[in-house]
Amino acid sequence: MKLPIPKRELKHAIWLMLLGAFIGWLLEYVLLGVLAGTLACLFIHLSQLKQLENWAEDTSKPVPDGMGTWAKAYSAIHHLYRNELRSKESLIGIIDRARSSVAALDEGIALINKDGNLEWWNPAAGKLLGLRARDMQQPLINIIRAPAFIRYFQHGPFNEGIKLPSHKHSGRHLQFEITLFGDNDKLMIVYDITRVHKLEQMRKDFVANVSHELRTPLTVLSGYLETFLAQADSLSPRMLKALQQMDGQTLRMKNLVNDLLLLSSLENEGLQVKLSPVDVPRLLQQVLHDAQILAEPKHQTINLNADENTHIMGMSSNLRSAFSNLVTNAIKYTPDGGKVDIFWGRNESGDITFSVTDSGIGIDATHIPRLTERFYRVDAGRSSATGGTGLGLAIVKHVLMQHSAHLTIESQPELGSTFSCHFPRSLITR
Questions:
Q1: Between 332 and which of 106, 135, 143, 386 could a Cys-Cys bridge form, CB atoms 3.0 to 4.6 Å apart?
Q2: pTM of the model
């Protein structure tokens, strides 16, 4: 694109050259006069350019005086500079307010670059994590050295936080949440959950103690009821019906207590468990046998497709509890004559998967995020009819957490559901 030549400057240049030519003509050196006029024009523009350079080095000085287009250039540059200065001041103000707001938060916030080094943190993070000025640009995993945190920091999953005892303050518990942004940089938020942890521990202790205390009287009641029911021939129909109802409710209470004790045991074990080789296909044959007995009165078909060569490291008893819960749920919520498919092996991406697919009543999508909560029921009446305790999927969730695995649920009302447990490849033994 050709830039237009300012007419005013062109006229000035022509007049200078004509003036130089006239003076040269008087002195009988016309060409030298034209050259002198051209040099004078060049000198004027160079002086204006030098003036612009000096002003650019120190824009606090007044805008220099210019001629013609140079005056317009000075004015335009000054206008741009003032706009940039206002934008910069505005941005600095926003950053200062943001930093003040972040500094006032009780939650700790830290920025970690793509190399895993600390770049910035607010005062709360400094207090919670014991950070000092010398920790700037230091690897975070050199400061927080808990193995569970290092695994979380390096591999995630970042859609879930991690709760750990504080490495700096005894008796304090923290929750870490990491979000990725930019070029694999990380924003880490740290919460002090000491009070919540204590309340949670009190709840766990209460549930465990009450469950233990209930087990003995329930065992006594169940024993006497079995004794009475063994003499059913000598009982009146009214008394027999009452005893049978009592026996059914006692059994339901025993199942609830057993599930509470198992859940309490899993919570107390946490993630610090000793894993050993598990022959999962053989374990699933035992689960299948129990499932067929449960499904026989409903005339359901139970299919097992298990890869005999896929074994993992894990806790056999806990895995059996989780798998049995999923299969039992599928049978309970599948109508008579339905089908339940059990799969164990590697999926298309090579990950290890245990899945249970049924042709049951399905679950509305609004309920799926809360299914693993304790005592959560999609339909309280329907769950009571099937004898569920509302703890099965909570048990499954805790067992999977012990194995660094996770649960996914796919379901459509009236079409069935698929519950899948995804295990990391690092657990494979063969």
A1: 386
A2: 0.56
Q: Higher-confidence residue: 389 or 373?
A: 373
Q: Among 47-61, 102-116, 248-262, where is mean pLDDT lowest?
A: 47-61
105-192 has which CATH code?
A: 3.30.450.20
Residues 6+ apart with CB under 8 A from 337: 298, 299, 300
Band (pLDDT 50/70/90 cuts) for residue 35 is: low
Neighbours of 87 (CB within 10 A): 10
Which amino acid, one-letter code, is at 334?
T
Contact partners, residue 425, CB within 8 Å, separation at least 6: 350, 351, 352
Cα four-point dihedral sign 290, 294, 296, 302: negative
Q: How far apart are the first and last CA of the chain?
A: 70
Residue 363: count of CB within 10 angstroms of its CB: 19
Structure tokens at 16: 């200078």
In CATH terms, the fold of domain 196-269 is Helix Hairpins (1.10.287)
**What dotted CATH number matches 276-427?**
3.30.565.10
Nearest to 340 by CA among 304, 286, 393, 298: 304
Alpha-carbon span 189 to 186, nearest angstrom: 10
Which one-letter DSSP state was computed for residue 425? Answer: G
Alpha helix stretches (DSSP H) within 230-362: 237-269, 280-295, 316-332
Phi, psi of 174 (to 5 degrees): -125, 155
